[in-house]
Design goal:
The complex is a heterodimer.
Chain A (H helix, E strand, L loop, with lengths): L4 H11 L3 H20 L8 H14 L14 H9 L18 H11 L19 H12 L5 H30 L5 H10 L2 H7 L5 H21 L3 H15 L8 H16 L3 H29 L17 H12 L16 H10 L2 H4 L5 H24 L1 H6 L1 H27 L15 H14 L2 H30 L2
Chain B lengths: L1 H32 L5 E6 L6 E6 L4 E9 L3 E10 L6 E8 L2 E8 L3 E9 L7 E9 L5 E6 L9 E4 L2 E3 L3 E2 L1 E5 L9 H10 L7 H12 L1 H22 L14
Antiparallel strand pairs in B: 1-13, 2-9, 3-8, 3-10, 4-7, 4-9, 4-13, 5-6, 5-8, 9-12, 10-11
Helix pairs in contact in B: 1-4
Classes of the chains: A mainly alpha, B alpha+beta.
Chain lengths: 490, 249
């Protein structure tokens, strides 16, 4: 296939897109746009620091520093934040943005002129993050036809929504890779498209949306590589998103070993000639290694002392026994012989239930405890069903072990990195650095787990179960958006 | 036979989405119709960690400015403490160019809490000031915040003298309760106002309709997928857990 044929091929594919996928992509876009409009500017999780990073990149060509610099954010952002009340109202449930001051603030920004766009080079907590997402956002910031600050902010938000829409498309392809039942595709992609946590993050300026896209792309690439066999394109298909993921966020470091293992499995199964193996395997390994080194160098250059590519503010001592005790107590009750966990009472329920299904936009948008308890019970039942289905279909899973290994490694790698980062951060006095949105890179896996259970059942049972899961996901999405509307607009 | 099964499974797919949505969606529907406070603006905020307390003796007056009154702003809520009986009378004055509203409220004796006071709405958007005046006989403590991160652009004056770094909590509402559903136009307008013109109302209306109609869309697309699934299963009777395209080596 020549390069000239690519646009034609892409157009053919676009035209041949199944209607359910097109509908889901439209729904995902609507979901993301709705969150971008409902959440006041710079009100998303750490959004001010991310926007300040983008602005520093635009104004100076370099990222900000974590511990020093000319200021946290520009005068322009200060005028916007205080003038529209979007900075003071954080965590103030009675507070609302000052919609009536938009014209006044825009006039003030105009009066302040370009000098208010002063490069704020730090201190900025986001400075430890590698620059890929910020470079993408900076490009949008510069290219948007709307030159007002609100326009630029919304442009970057919309560009981030586009990443979310692509993620939904990739989730569809992952389902196609894993399941022969066609209805598993809208199930997996629907669970991603209707997830309010992901949609709300995508509606903000935040590198997490890009990390989720690249993690999902890496998973898809890895599955294709280990299932369909070794080709240079497929090796690139897993290595490139992994490299980009590492350069997007420190929490993306787990993608490098995942991609390396996927390439290793493919090489082991294909057993190509030594030269081809060296070129493909060595090339992928070198690219992954270089990306990790580049990520670390960036973090060191802009946030000396930060650990894990900026995923933790600092790394303290690592005591294996204490770490294992912490991980155990994160999921299970404490044994008498164990010392109290360093985890400050934060466990799996807070991470996987409360903070994954709730706690949107600075932990301000939550449903009632009864809903979280119902979700917890549902999650337990789902885990039991997953285990039972896996046991009943073990022969089929063994036959497809490479795909199973990739999926398991994806989940375990992501969670293990989060635990290591969180533990070392606590030890360094930096506090917990683990919350629900950090699980979003594995969201396609969550959809795949639901689909695995549903497709393992007889169709007359699996289909309505899948329908119920989609309905609940959709309702959760609507309810959270309603709560967001009440919080910020009503 | 296969065709009947396909129809039954598709109906099951569509039905499951709709039944669960109808069953569990009642709460969401009730929530959208429930009457609740309709905030018009929040000129000053409550304390999160650190309070500012302004003691007003008989005759004292505290004011915050600027305060924006929307056309339908008709209720104010503030935080106060009345330590001892008899509780004082407090006069509230909402003033702006061409607008002047006064209301008197007999405060309850309470440790700390919020008090609502209703007044005449201005009928158009105006920006001015809000004042509390203690008519006695006992003092009242008005409560706000002195946290830098919670301070808005409003200024506080007590008996004409400015108090830097302090604000008294004040939130303004429309009269009575309103459902989110009844305010949908206003909410969309507010959402659009801070998007720099990139998500105007004519974009947000279809977005909202799409999202609130999403259960129907999801039911349709899932039903269509099950229909197609059965179609494909008929064409190639594959094992249910095999990948669609190339099989593993």
């Amino acid at each position: 296939m020549s390069w000239r044929e690519l646009p034609k091929r892409a157009w053919r594919r676009l035209r041949g897109m199944p209607a359910p996928l097109a509908a889901l992509l439209v729904l995902a876009a609507a979901n993301g746009i709705a969150w971008a409009a409902v959440t006041p500017p710079i009100q998303g999780p750490d959004e001010l620091t991310h926007v300040a990073y983008v602005q520093a990149l635009v104004e100076t060509g370099d990222g900000p520093n974590r511990d020093s610099g000319s200021g946290q954010y520009s005068r322009e952002l200060e005028i916007l934040g205080s003038g529209l009340y979007v900075l003071p109202i954080t965590q103030h449930f009675e507070g609302r943005p000052a919609w009536h001051r938009v014209d006044e603030v825009e006039a003030e920004l105009k009066r302040a002129g370009s000098s208010a766009r002063n490069a704020a080079t730090g201190p900025n907590a986001a400075a430890a993050n590698p620059p890929l997402y910020y470079a993408y956002a900076a490009m949008v910031w510069e290219l948007t036809p709307d030159r007002s600050l609100l326009g630029r902010l919304m442009s970057v938000r919309l560009a981030t929504v586009a990443l979310f829409v692509l993620t939904v498309g990739l989730a569809w392809l992952i389902a196609a890779e894993l399941f022969s039942a066609w209805w598993a595709r809208p199930l997996v992609a629907g669970i991603v498209a209707l997830n309010p946590k992901l949609a709300s993050i995508a509606g903000n300026v935040n590198p997490d949306a890009m990390l989720v896209l690249l993690s999902t792309a890496t998973l898809l690439g890895a599955l294709r590589l280990v299932q369909r066999g070794l080709t240079p394109w497929r090796v690139a298909g897993v290595a490139v998103p992994a490299v980009l993921g590492v350069l997007t966020h420190g929490r993306g470091y787990f993608l490098a070993p995942l991609a390396a293992i996927a390439v290793g499995i493919a090489l082991w199964r294909a057993r190509p000639q030594r030269r081809a193996a060296l070129i493909l395997g060595g090339g992928a390994a070198a690219a992954l290694l270089v990306s990790v080194l580049l990520g670390m160098a960036w973090t060191r250059g802009h946030a000396g002392g930060a650990a894990f590519g900026g995923a933790a503010p600092a790394a303290g001592s690592f005591v294996p026994k204490e770490f294992l005790s912490y991980v155990w107590q994160f999921y299970f009750p404490k044994f008498g012989f164990l010392e109290a966990s360093v985890g400050q009472g934060y466990g799996y329920k807070q991470l996987f239930i409360d903070r994954f299904f709730g706690g949107l936009v600075n932990l301000e948008i939550d449903v009632g405890n009864d809903v979280y308890e119902a979700i917890q019970i549902g999650a337990w039942l789902g885990l039991v069903a997953l285990w039972t289905a896996a046991m009943l279909r073990w022969r089929s899973l063994v036959a497809r072990w490479p795909a199973v290994v990739v999926c398991l490694l994806m989940f375990l790698g992501m969670v293990a990195l989060l635990h290591v980062v969180s533990y070392t951060s606590i030890k360094a006095g930096g506090g917990l650095v683990i919350t629900g949105r950090y699980l979003l890179p594995g969201i396609a896996l969550m959809g795949a787990a639901v689909a695995f259970v549903a497709t393992s059942l007889p169709r007359w049972l699996g289909v309505p179960l899948a329908g119920a899961a989609l309905a609940l996901a959709g309702l959760h999405s609507i309810v959270m958006l309603g709560l967001g509307t009440e919080r910020f607009l009503a | 036979m296969r065709s009947r099964r396909r129809i039954a499974l598709t109906a099951l797919a569509v039905g499951s989405v709709l039944v669960v949505t109808l069953w569990h969606g009642q709460g969401a529907w009730r929530g959208a119709r429930a009457l609740r406070d309709a905030t018009t603006s929040s000129p000053t905020l409550a304390p999160l960690f650190s309070r500012a307390v302004v003691k007003l003796e008989k005759g004292d007056e505290a004011c915050v400015e600027p305060v924006t009154y929307y056309a339908d702003t008709a209720r104010g809520r503030f935080r106060m403490r009345v330590p001892r009986a008899p509780a004082p009378d407090l006069v509230m004055k909402a003033t702006a160019p061409g607008y002047d509203a006064t209301a008197t409220v007999k405060l309850p004796v309470q440790v700390e809490g919020t008090v609502n006071v209703e007044f005449r709405e201005p009928g158009r958007e105006v920006t001015g000031r809000w004042c509390w005046q203690n008519r006695g006989p006992t003092p009242v403590q008005l409560i706000g915040t002195n946290e830098g991160r919670s301070l808005t652009i409003a200024d506080l004056t007590v008996n004409g003298r400015r108090r830097d770094g302090e604000e008294l909590e004040l939130v303004l509402f429309e009269r009575g309760g309103h459902s989110l559903r009844s305010r949908r136009g206003e909410l969309i307008d507010r959402a659009a106002s801070m998007t720099g013109g990139l998500a105007p109302e004519w974009v947000l209306w279809p977005v909202a309709l799409l999202l609130f109609g999403s259960p129907l869309i999801v039911a349709a697309l899932f039903g269509l997928s099950v229909w197609r699934s059965e179609d494909e299963a008929a064409r190639a009777s594959r094992a249910p857990d095999e990948p669609t395209r190339a099989a593993p080596r």
